[in-house]
Amino acid sequence: MDVFFLFILPFLLYSFFSLFKLILQRRSQACYMLAYECFMPPEDTKLNTVSATKIVLRNTKLRLEELRFLLKTIVGSGIGENTYCSRTILEGREECPSLKDTYEEIDEIMFDTLDNLFKKTAISPSEIDILVVNVSLFSPAPSLTARVINRYKMRENVKAFNLTGMGCSASVIAIDVVQQLFKTYKNSVGIVVSTQDIGAHWYCGTDKKMMFSNCLFRSGGCTVMLTNKGSLKGRSILKLKHVERTQYSADDDAYNCCIHMEDEQGYLGHRVTKSLVKKSATQAFTVNLQATALKILPVWEMIRFFFVSVWCSGMKKREMVAILVGLILGKKKTNDNVLGGGLNLKTGIEHFCVHPGVRAIIDGIGKGFRLTEYDLEPSRMTLHRWGNTSSSGIWYVLGYMEAKKRLKKGDSILVISLGAGFKCNSCVWEVTRDLYDTNVWKDCIESYPPENLSNPFKDKYDWINEDYLSFVRLDLSRIFI
């Protein structure tokens, strides 16, 4: 017996140390969020009804038909009149913005949020190991990461990455980049800066599909600090559980539904087609959630929905067994009838952070997955208060949840973002401690949700839809203000 024990002892020791090493490796690859800081624009950049009307009427090429379209879009957008806009646009330089204007807009967002984040966490710029900056349409040389490194005099071995052209979904992609790097670089601290520049990309033409973006996009940004350091785990607010990325660029309709281009008159802008909401967003989101659901929902919910779907579809026994095994084993490829809107996401998720890009998408996701108005309130209120701030919008939604004291230790948050390409990216976070900071919402959180979300444009300018105006030539610039 002693001989046998001596014989197997090396194998037992090897197995023990291998298991111990695997546990330490997985712990060092974890991704925790230490803090995030949303950008609070200056009060002199607020875009109310009067200033927005002045901007619209500077485009003298607009006819009554286009003005009616703009009014309908603004009224139905879900955006209020306390959003913020670039100084380049407010000061009337949208047709000929300078490079200096763009740098000033980007710098204000990046450096304000970074300064506040370093102050909040007491972590110095020299301790940053990974830096990712994402912006939709601006790609300067030197890069924006180089600009940040120069400003804060970061170390020469910091890992820097620039993401451009990713649209409103870029922030989740940047989070995934940091998470993947954490698998290689242990005891690291990473920063994700999500920003945008609307001043240099304001559309000045008359194409309705390209005017749409002018009605939605507003100034905003956010910086997030992440780490896989065990020593900082106790200071974290969230832990990343899963990231899922879906890319639909191979489909021509999806690729062209949200694209930066020139119109027939040569005006540069962002064209958004109807297929974005009706087809591309739906397809990308469905595929993304099919893969995510297998990772975040309990097995009993998957089995419950499986049998309900089978009962309604009349599926054969052989197909039933194959799909059920796939669900239990966590395979991504499943029958579309098995994973869909009938899943009860609330069995695995307490909070839903839906990208506040447009009201139609928020409505569609809420209807498709039977979410309540309480679930959708953070996204609706973010769209109303801040507008579509591109990739940073999801963090304003998170800020609303925190300011309303909704986030309790152990809760799960599903973050859903959509972007040009077309792509859908989502991630699941676990709350590591009760959160209650009012953050960027501190000046207005007590007034949300308001009793009435009606847009003031409707009450003030609804007369433009009267039929008699179609037969009368008017100097609209004189009667609008």
TrEMBL record:
Q: Domain (FAE): give its ranges.
A: 24-308
Q: Could you confirm whether the keyword Transferase appears in this record? A: yes
Q: In which pathway does it act?
A: Lipid metabolism; fatty acid biosynthesis
- One Pfam family of this protein, by short name? ACP_syn_III_C
Q: Which GO terms describe its molecular function?
A: fatty acid elongase activity
- Record keywords: Acyltransferase, Membrane, Transferase, Transmembrane, Transmembrane helix
* Gene Ontology cellular-component annotations: membrane
Lineage of the source organism? Answer: Eukaryota, Viridiplantae, Streptophyta, Embryophyta, Tracheophyta
Name the gene behind this protein: Vigan.08G010700
Q: Which GO terms describe its biological process?
A: fatty acid biosynthetic process
Full protein name: 3-ketoacyl-CoA synthase
